[in-house]
Input
Amino acid sequence: MIATYVHNIDPIIFSVTDAIKLRWYGLAYLLAFVVGYLLLKRLGDRKLWVLPGEKAADFITMAAVFGVFLGGRIGNILVYQWDEFVADPVMLFKVWEGGMASHGGILGLMIFTFVYSRMKKLSWTGLGDGLCVVAPLGIMFGRLANFINGELYGRIDRAHAWAMKFPDALGDDLKSKEDTLAAQQSLFQDINAIDPELASTINPALYTSNLTERHYGHFSEASLNSEQIRDAITPYLEPRYPSQLFQAAGEGLSLFLILYIIRIKFPRLPHGILTGLFFVFYAIFRITMENFREPEIADVNLLGSNFTMGQFLSLFMIIIGVGFIIWGAVRKKGLADA
Output
């Protein structure tokens, strides 16, 4: 039997000082914007976008700041991290630790492109069509960054060889044990035998109740640099879907290929059609992939059915996408009319 891979990728590539570090998460987003710029420039140069290629750099820079970062970060805090934000407002700026909501980033880009189109007197949907073609690659790099960070891991999967164990899932995995308290106490004893100093960072009184995610984080972080600690926590970890990679392949690479091929094959498509297709296909991919991803918060009940928050928000994206498609089909204004 093939041993289950235990995630052990350090999120830091190298450190210059304790305060200055190059992280894979930051590099992934940098690559996303560089690739986005090159593709938008190519589309503009080939007159497949409402902006000329030489304007792509300014546009993608502003889209990154005002759309992706602000929208993605604020969206994630409002939906998933509100309690953490209330306790520590400074965490809003700690983007290197992860925590970017794709739905928030998409909404942020919608608002940004609307304002930009009004300022430059361009078609809002025409501007959005180009952005929607390249945006899935940004999503792909973001999901790869999630995987490198070991965050947003998948649901428990004991049936497939591709399943992986994620140290950051230690809290969820202990809660899944039949006797959670006994598992916690056993884990503490194992850690204490290896590294009493690490074990001492936790108040022993806490072992009479459930530990918090912060305490599990001490162990998962230590496992990056200590094979003994990693071996100690591995038996308590459950194999899980590498859902970050599934999402990178689906709502990232696959969605990009679909939209890019349509853009090239149908250059006279009315403005808004590609934007609508992006919303619809992204929602379909996201709703599907949520079946493999561990939910971050409680399910949302709608008309007697339970949806994860990602699925719930994606339902609105389908409605928005259909609206864009109808708008484009009715107006029938495309690149040839710009």
Notes: The chain is about 60% helix and 5% strand. Residues 169-236 form one domain.
